[in-house]
Structure formats: C-alpha cells, structure tokens
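User: I'm putting together a small comparison set for a docking exercise, and I want a reference complex before I start. The sequence is below, and the ligand is zinc ion. Could you produce the 3D structure with the ligand included, as structure tokens?
Assistant: Of course. I'll restate your input first, then give the structure tokens for the complex.
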Amino acid sequence: MIIAPSLLAANYAQFGKDVLRANKSGAEWLHLDIMDGHFVPNISFGPQVVKTLRPLSKLFFDVHLMCSKPEILLEPFAKAGADEIIIHVELGDAVAPLIWKIRSLGKKVGLAVNPPTNIALAEPFLEQIDLLLVMTVNPGFGGQEFIHECLPKIQQADAWRRERNLSYRLEVDGGINNQTVGECARVGADTFVAGTALFGRPNMKAAVAKMRKIAEANDPALADLKV
Ligand code: DX5
Ligand code: ZN
C-alpha cells in the first residue's frame, strides 16, 4: 500500500516545512495537485514550487496535472523533479500522444478519471500506464466529501488488472480518510492520496500509520491469505 499526502492541503506559507513533515510521516509519496484555473476552477502551484521542494525530499513526487494543456507543462515538471506525471482521460485524443511524451521524458505515466467519466474511457490505455487514478471527488479543491458512486469504478479497474495480468497501481484521490480508505482498499485501491486527513492533522506520522493500518486490514489479497 502507498500513502501519498497531497500538498494541496499543506500550509502554503510553509511548503518547505510541511514537506519535511511529510518526509518523516512514513508516507512513501508526495502528491502534487497542479491546477490551471481552466480544466478545474482553481489555481494551485507550478513547476518552480516543485523544483524548490525537490532537494528537500526523497519522496516519490506524484504530479497530478489537472490542466487543459498539459503538453506545455510536461517538460517543466519533469525537469523540476516529478517522478510520475498524471494526466486526465477527459483530454480525449490528446491522451495517447501525452502518454508517449511523458514516457519519452523518462517519467512514470498516470491516467486520471473524473467521477462523471465512464471508466471504460481508460480501458484502451491500461497496458501503457503505470497508474490509474480514480478520482473520488470532482477535482479542484481539497476537503470535499467522498463520492461513494466511484467505488464500482475502482472495482472494475482492479478486475481488469487481475484479468489481464497488468501491474498498474490503482490510486484514489479526494475525501480519503479513515472511513473511506477501507472502502477503497476493499475494492482494490492500493495507492491513497489524502490532503485534509493527513496534512490537516497535528501528528501526521500517526495519521499516516492509522490510514495505512486500515488500508492493509481491508486489502482483499491479505483477506484471501487469512482464509
Ligand atoms: C482535488 C484534489 C484533492 C486533494 C485531496 O482536485 O486532488 O482531492 O488531492 O484532497 P482531500 O484529501 O483534502 O479531500
Ligand atoms: Zn490529485
């Protein structure tokens, strides 16, 4: 299981200090939500912030581009220190060339699917990606309510992975907390983005450990072993 605190929920007045908190929290990844004010009705931070934070952390930088024209941002974020770049399947015909471009930059490839979008749109790309992100809120803001109707999409993505012997990670993002993490793990999610539930806690290390414990306790693979 991977726990990925989302910097979106960090203290914007002290990003550096909060990344040091994340370093010591037991999380493996740092999730960086990039918003362009067009694909989503919000603007967050850009490549310069990622570049500044990169030398402060050995965490895997999971860069989530909620952007309408990611093609102009791939190189800047790759150079800034992204380890993985996630684009949205809602970009339609642009997805295939974008996947190729991210690969050519030597970065891991993630594909995100918004709550209203049919998970079938992601099916043609399953062999080409390292991670499938099932959004569990409508992107744009942290602190939103988890959308339970997204659970069958996670289940479907996990079924495809098993049936086709694929190894992409299954990530969820939005409203992930100690109640919803177990529901997502039970249907196959293995990578959990959380902002409010982690950066928002005074003891981030304890929050990460608790979330991980609940995720692992609901891992279907472990449940099979228990029988
Ligand atoms: C939505 C963002 C949020 C963020 C996590 O665009 O992607 O989902 O990462 O937000 P929380 O964990 O606070 O719901
Ligand atoms: Zn995100």
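The helical segments are 15-23, 47-53, 74-80, 95-104, 151-163, 180-186, 204-217, 220-226. Residues 204-217 form the longest helix (14 residues).
User: Thanks, that's exactly what I needed.
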